[in-house]
Each structure stands twice: as structure tokens, then as C-alpha cells.
Specification:
Radius of gyration: 21 Å
CATH topology of one domain: Multidrug-efflux Transporter Regulator, Chain: A, Domain 2
Strand order of the largest sheet: 3-5-4
Oligomer: single chain
Length: 239
Amino acid sequence: MTTDAGETTLTIDELAARAGVTVRTVRFYGTKGLLPPPVIGPRRVGHYGREHLARLALIEELQQQGMTLAAIERYLQQLPPDLDAHDLAIHRAVVASWAPDAVETVPRAELERRAGRALGDGDVERLAAMGVVAAGDDGYRVDLGLLRLGVGLLDVPLSQEAILAARTVLIEHSRAAAHELSQLFRGEVSQRAARDVKSLSAHMQPLVMQALLTTFQRSLKEELRDWLNGMSEEDGGTA
């Protein structure tokens, strides 16, 4: 279902299915304050939006990090109350970066459950092309750190070639940034004991990820704004 403004809205059953949880779980999170209340529509039916779905994804990621429900509640309470789905996705990406690489082999049904949606053969082929899944004799080998990102890209109106080219650009620049940062940190910790270096690394990784995501987000906004402003000037000049 969509509103007049084009914003997707979901019933509680649809939200639960998309998030890969039960309706009972959604209601429980609501009573605990982990999810904001739905918008009440005609016939007193509650409708949920992209923010609810993104918040459920963040909760799932926090659970995978081993956080208790009480700890998750404290974490969410510290977040600004007006975060939209995009902001919540940024937070989930930061949390996901704390985890070590995780690859599992799962059957098709479990792959779809982890993805939070049904996947057609074409969807699986696109995920395979992005390096998210690989089909094998015993199931699908899934990079869990990339799965939700890959599933999100299935709905992006870009060609597969453009997505793969963007992936290459991000990998190349990320490796370059990681190399330069590691060189910088080595100069700071060269005299420290190995134990102190490991402790510093554990503390720095989430902070660096947050800094990279925030910086990239702002830079991308600036690039898109300049692009759109240029398009507007061209349209004005030809009018």
C-alpha cells in the first residue's frame, strides 16, 4: 500500500513479513518502546512505514552483536528521535561493521528469510553478480554482511553494470583510505605494546567506520545537490 505522497505503508502483517519477524515480536517491540507507534488509518488499522522497517533491521543487527534487549533499549533511547529510514540504515551499517566477516551456507528458504522477502531467480542472479551469494550443491553461500545491502540494491533503478561499477569504485577508494589510515595509526602506536595496539584497534574500528560513513554521506549529498542545481540551471537556460 502507498499513500498519496508515494510513501510506502505496511500493515503489521506486511511489516513482520518484510522484516522476517513475527507479528507478536512487532507488538512486543512496540510495548517496550523499541518501535514508534503506527499511524492509525481508516477502520483503526495501524500503518507502518520505512522507518519502522529500518528500525527493525537495526534491532536485528544489534541482537546479532550479542546485545541484550535491555542494552538495545538503552542504545535506541540515545538516538535522536527524528531519525528517518536513511539515518537508521547508516546506524545499522556502523553496527554491522563491528562484526567479523560472516559467511554461511543456507538453503533457499533460509536465504529468503534472511533477506526478509521472496527472491526470484533473477534476484538471486543479481545478488550472485554482486558477490553477495554463490550457489553450491549444498545451498547458497551467503555473505551476511552484504546481504541486506544487496537486497536493498535489488529495488534501486540502476543497471547491473552501474551497480558493479559503483562497487568497484567503492572498493578501490575504501582500500586506499584504509591503507592511508593504517599508516597514520602505525606512526602513533609504533612504541606501544601489542596488547595496547589490539585494544586501540578494537576501539578505533567503529569510530573510523562512523567517521567514514558520515563523511561519505555528506560528500554524496553535496555532489547530488551540485548535480541537481546544474540540471536546474540548464533547464532554466533552455526555457
